[in-house]
From TrEMBL:
<dbReference type="InterPro" id="IPR005286">
    <property type="entry name" value="Cell_div_FtsE"/>
</dbReference>
<comment type="subunit">
    <text>Homodimer. Forms a membrane-associated complex with FtsX.</text>
</comment>
<keyword id="KW-0131">Cell cycle</keyword>
<dbReference type="GO" id="GO:0005524">
    <property type="term" value="F:ATP binding"/>
</dbReference>
<dbReference type="Pfam" id="PF00005">
    <property type="entry name" value="ABC_tran"/>
</dbReference>
<keyword id="KW-0132">Cell division</keyword>
<comment type="function">
    <text>Part of the ABC transporter FtsEX involved in cellular division.</text>
</comment>
<dbReference type="GO" id="GO:0022857">
    <property type="term" value="F:transmembrane transporter activity"/>
</dbReference>
<dbReference type="InterPro" id="IPR015854">
    <property type="entry name" value="ABC_transpr_LolD-like"/>
</dbReference>
<dbReference type="GO" id="GO:0005886">
    <property type="term" value="C:plasma membrane"/>
</dbReference>
<feature type="domain" description="ABC transporter">
    <location>
        <begin position="2"/>
        <end position="228"/>
    </location>
</feature>
<keyword id="KW-0547">Nucleotide-binding</keyword>
<protein>
    <recommendedName>
        <fullName>Cell division ATP-binding protein FtsE</fullName>
    </recommendedName>
</protein>
<keyword id="KW-0472">Membrane</keyword>
<keyword id="KW-0813">Transport</keyword>
<keyword id="KW-0067">ATP-binding</keyword>
<dbReference type="InterPro" id="IPR003439">
    <property type="entry name" value="ABC_transporter-like_ATP-bd"/>
</dbReference>
Length: 228
């Protein structure tokens, strides 16, 4: 599903965030991306949805070489990819239903399909009863659930999560992880950057550790391996 071939990323300030990364992530896998701050984790995952472009090398998602995509083609790519951020990025003037529906409206889904799909994912994340509430009326955990629902409503093949539990208390973090587990069991590939040592060490999946722009560990069922 995801392939990186000899990927380098050097920023204009001279910082090298990826220094020759090679990795393959098969369809349906759940991968944690770990490492100390400034190691290159965020760049690694941002290149998977074209927020950043590699300086050299190839990033391939579902057979599409992102390195060769034109800017106007990026929205089409992102229909295959759901992205969940640490800070939710919800639209404050839209209610829960409308925030999730927005992802389908921009690709011109029919109103009947929008209703059907939004209701299905709100049920999956446990927010059916709060569909008409606005972001400021929700807890942080509920806002993150909305963000997850929005990321999966068009049934993407890949979900990329950047510190999705970073702003949440421990109990809520486990609830969010349970949702990700359910999504993964439906066959969706998940790549999650995280500093949450306890989650990585408890819910075991493949662990890719990045340090100094290099993959220093790639282990199935691995542990966190750093001081959190």
């Amino acid at each position: 599903m995801i392939v990186m071939e000899d990927v380098y990323k050097k920023y204009s300030n001279g910082v090298v965030a990826s220094n020759g990364i090679n990795v393959e992530i098969p369809t349906g896998e759940f991968v944690y991306v770990v490492g100390p701050s400034g190691a290159g984790k965020s760049t690694f995952i941002k290149m998977m949805y074209c927020e950043e472009r590699p300086t050299k090398g190839n990033v391939i998602i579902d057979g599409v070489n992102l390195s060769k995509l034109k800017k106007r083609e990026i929205p089409l790519l992102r229909r295959k990819i759901g992205v969940v951020f640490q800070d939710f990025k919800l639209l404050p003037k839209l209610n829960v239903f409308e925030n999730v529906a927005f992802a389908l409206e921009v690709i011109e889904e029919s109103p009947s399909q929008i209703r059907k799909k939004v209701n299905e994912v709100l049920q999956l994340v446990g927010l059916t009863a709060k569909a008409r509430m606005f972001p400021h009326e929700l807890s942080g955990g509920e806002q993150q659930r909305v963000s997850i629902a929005r990321s999966i409503v068009n049934m993407p093949k890949v979900v990329i999560a950047d510190e999705p539990t970073g702003n949440l208390d421990p109990e809520t973090s486990w609830e969010i992880m349970n949702i990700f587990e359910r999504i993964n069991k439906r066959g969706t590939t998940i790549v999650m950057a995280t500093h949450n040592k306890e989650i990585v060490n408890t819910i075991r999946h493949r662990v890719i550790a990045i340090e100094g722009g290099l993959i220093t560990k790639d282990e199935y069922g691995g542990d966190y391996g750093y001081e959190a």
